What we know:
Number of domains: 1
Organism: Azospirillum oleiclasticum
Order of helices and strands: HHHH
Largest sheet: none
Number of helices: 4
Transmembrane segments: 12-36, 48-69, 81-101, 113-132
Shape: elongated
Number of strands: 0
InterPro entries: DUF2231_TM
Radius of gyration: 18 Å
Pfam families: DUF2231
Domain DUF2231: 13-132
Strand content: under 5%
Amino acid sequence: MDRYDHRPATAIHPVHAVLLAATVPLFLGGLIADIAYSMTYQIQWTNFASWLIAGGMVFTGFALLWAFIDLFRAGRRRARAVACFALLIVTFALGLVNSFVHARDAWGAMPEGLVLSAVVSVTALVATWLGFSSLRMGGVS
């Protein structure tokens, strides 16, 4: 048997790809709105951030559900599927805390809201990267 497996890597399901990809711009938009509020103190920016974070939470919840189902069909990429699932859980939990922080008035949401938005954006980005990356086996051909 050949040492290298030259079968193509399995791709992510298109619905899972859409759910994962939608989390990044929504959480990133929330971070940008928080940055805008910290620079201008216009209350509407925290309202924008709250809605963007809520949208990100919806897509993260569905992506988390899909990642849970994907754990059972992962096959060779089980470690990557578990890592993606774990990061989505962290993203969902921190996003929920971020939603609660943004439920306060605009002045009370800062600076915790800004820091949480940055952390949630990074975890969503890494979870999306892990979800989109595929396991490549074998040498270069």
